[in-house]
Structures are given as C-alpha cells and as structure tokens.
Amino acid sequence: QVQLVESGGGFVQPGGSLRLSCAASGSIDNVYVMGWYRRTPGKMHELVADIGSEGSTNYADFAQGRFTISRDSGKNTVYLQMNSLKPEDTGVYYCKLSTVGSGYWGQGTQVTVSS
Question: H/E element holding 70?
C-alpha cells in the first residue's frame, strides 16, 4: 500500500508564506507526476501545481508567480513553496502521486490565511 503524508500546513497572515511537504512511502515504480491539489470553500477540487518526472512544471493561474513546486525523485517527495498568500488560498491541500494508470492521494493538510 502506498502512503502519502503531507505536512507544513497551518495558519498564516495575508502576505505570508508556507512550505508544504509530501513524502510517499511504499514500493512505487515509474512515478510520472507528483502534484498538489486543493479544495477551497465553494469551489471544486482543483490543481494547484504539478511536476513531471523530467522536471517539467505546471501551475494553475492563481498559483503562477506565487507558488513554486519542487521534487526529490529519489525519495518520492514533493514540496510546495507558497508565498504572498491570500485569504482565498484558504483550503485543504492534497498531495497526489501518479503513475501510468494509478493515482495515490494524501489525507490533506489545512491552510488558513487570515488576519
């Protein structure tokens, strides 16, 4: 069984920063993409950013220029550096690991941006 554990969420003021981490354990071959998704109040489950096996990255419009995704492939670990956070970024952030034909999800970590 593959397990993904997120950490780094918390409470931050507008304009602040958080760094999320996600570590995958278990026997995993041929990792294709790792990424971050989120669910915010009143919105669908949406992509934040992902990173492919060759290092290519993809960002949602709201994340572009503020968030940075990175990956440690040797440990199947993915990070999300979030800067200039806004109240509308508040939500639950989920880590996902994808192989060809399979996807694995973390339990989610809460991010709250508020004064």
Answer: strand 67-72
CA angle 113, 41, 33 (to 5 degrees): 85
46 sits in the region (left: phi over 0; alpha: psi -120 to 50; else beta) called beta
29-39 per-position pLDDT tens digit: 777 899 999 99
Q: What is the pLDDT of residues 68-81, one digit of tens each?
A: 999 987 778 999 99
pLDDT band at 101 (very low <50, low <70, confident <90, very high): confident
Burial zone of 36 (CB within 10 Å; 0-12 exposed, 13-18 middle, 19+ buried)? buried
Token digits for 69? 């995704």
87: left (phi over 0), alpha (psi -120 to 50) or beta: alpha
Contact 48, 93 (CB under 8 A): yes
How far apart are the C-alpha atoms of 16 and 104, rounded to whole Å? 29
